[in-house]
């Protein structure tokens, strides 16, 4: 091998090693923080409420209740920690170690104590970690202080979620929304050090506005934010035009909402055969999907699959993704998909309802879908299925998108929940020459009791009022509500 070939081989080897480093999963130290002072406040409030409700409660019973409350809190913390670890894996990180900090209140400078900070620094150095992930939002000063004392990058919860969003954004709209959220996150966290903070244009012959580098960076980010907002407004305008065309032939919209990884995409595929991505990773669905669905009454709806929510969802994300969530705002009915197998079952419901309140859609009709019942034990599944109440005002349906369980009951519940174009029943007498009217009724309604009388066709049709009213001139009897 001559010198040129040896050099080429060395370059190829270096390129391969560089590629391996680029595609290697980043090693991360996870830091979960729990503030016991907040837990004590909540516990005291709960005890006061129990005391007011039952003055005769014994001390022993109170101790038992307090123990149960502590156990439940520890279970919730463990489940939240598992959720945080899943977030890290969804971002492509390799979890090297998980450290837990419990303290009465946050440290204003670093969030955690000095001793725990030294422990994290040692663990990061020993594991050759690339970054430290905090399951908590960090203020700009806390972020700077932590990065100054740790041997690797520091990322808080919001930045981690934004990174996952950036990975999963496929459409131009989704990418713009992620960029807007990232810019709004970065703006208050800009920091300059040393020469970067010196005045620009401060020398002889170069006197200028005297901006610091920090001010220049802020101005650039603000200009970029304005540009992205204008592009998003253009996207909203196109979406409004598309919606106006859809509304010219009114088709109800039903939106799937719920906690991330609750199984919305699997349920969406089971109902529509749309073939969208199903993944156990969090936020696998970022861009909204619409698919047509025919209900048992034969009327058509548009089913929308939306981005999942999560505990402590940053407000900037709700604001940035308002264009995507417009389908939720326009929907006539919401399907709240819940993971029936999750240990955070009730907490996830509260988080979703909080975001729906921010979107001003909490008063819409909601069908609660208890998903993933196939993962429950026989006893738990029976208890969940006993909660199904399709005929009641607060509709609850037990289902499984993956195992395709309970889908017929869910479709019937959607049919009953659509009140803007209610189902009605009407009797008709049509001449057989009205083939177009007969075909439209058979395509859009359920036909019963079809009889031929000479040149006439007698039938009963049950379907949407908008369709049946179109042929009221052939009505044989007064219309009655179904």
């Amino acid at each position: 091998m001559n010198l040129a070939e040896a050099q080429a081989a060395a370059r190829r080897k270096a390129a391969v090693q560089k590629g391996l480093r680029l595609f290697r999963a980043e090693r991360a130290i996870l830091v979960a923080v729990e503030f016991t002072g907040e837990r004590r406040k909540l516990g005291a409030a709960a005890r006061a409420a129990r005391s007011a409700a039952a003055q005769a409660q014994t001390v022993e019973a109170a101790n038992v209740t307090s123990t149960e409350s502590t156990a439940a809190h520890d279970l919730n913390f463990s489940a939240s920690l598992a959720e945080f670890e899943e977030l890290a894996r969804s971002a492509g990180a390799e979890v090297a170690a998980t450290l837990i900090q419990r303290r009465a209140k946050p440290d204003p400078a670093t969030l955690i104590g000095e001793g725990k900070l030294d422990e994290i620094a040692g663990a990061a150095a020993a594991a050759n970690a690339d970054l430290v992930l905090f399951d908590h939002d960090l203020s700009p000063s806390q972020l700077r202080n932590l990065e100054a004392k740790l041997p690797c990058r520091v990322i808080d919860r919001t930045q981690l979620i934004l990174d996952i969003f950036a990975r999963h954004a496929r459409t131009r709209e989704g990418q713009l929304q992620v960029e807007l959220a990232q810019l709004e996150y970065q703006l208050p966290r800009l920091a300059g050090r040393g020469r970067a903070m010196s005045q620009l244009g401060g020398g002889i012959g170069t006197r200028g506005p005297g901006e610091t580098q920090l001010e220049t960076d802020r101005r650039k980010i603000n200009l970029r934010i304005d540009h992205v907002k204008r592009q998003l407004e253009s996207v909203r305008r196109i979406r409004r035009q598309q919606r106006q065309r859809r509304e010219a032939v009114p088709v109800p919209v039903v939106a799937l909402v719920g906690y991330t990884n609750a199984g919305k995409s699997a349920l969406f595929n089971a109902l529509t055969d749309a073939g969208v991505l199903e993944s156990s990773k969090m936020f696998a669905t970022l861009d909204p999907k619409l698919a047509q669905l025919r209900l048992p009454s034969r009327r058509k709806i548009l089913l929308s699959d939306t981005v999942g929510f999560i505990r402590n969802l940053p407000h900037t994300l709700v604001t940035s993704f308002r264009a995507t969530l417009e389908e939720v705002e326009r929907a006539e009915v919401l399907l709240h998909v819940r993971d029936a197998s999750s240990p955070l079952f009730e907490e996830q419901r509260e988080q979703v309802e909080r975001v729906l309140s921010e979107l001003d859609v909490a008063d819409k009709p909601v069908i609660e879908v208890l998903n993933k019942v196939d993962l429950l034990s026989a006893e738990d599944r029976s208890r969940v299925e006993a909660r199904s109440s399709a005929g009641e005002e607060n509709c609850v349906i037990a289902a499984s998108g993956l195992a395709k369980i309970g889908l017929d009951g869910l479709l019937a519940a959607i049919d009953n929940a659509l009140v803007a174009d209610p189902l009605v029943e009407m009797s008709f007498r049509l001449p057989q020459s009205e083939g177009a009217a007969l075909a439209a009724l058979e395509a859009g309604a359920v036909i019963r009791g079809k009889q031929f009388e000479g040149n006439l066709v007698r039938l009963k049709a049950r379907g949407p009022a908008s369709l049946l009213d179109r042929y009221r001139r052939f009505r044989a009897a007064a219309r009655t509500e179904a």
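The domain at 250-417 is CATH 3.40.50.300 (Rossmann fold). The chain is about 45% helix and 20% strand.
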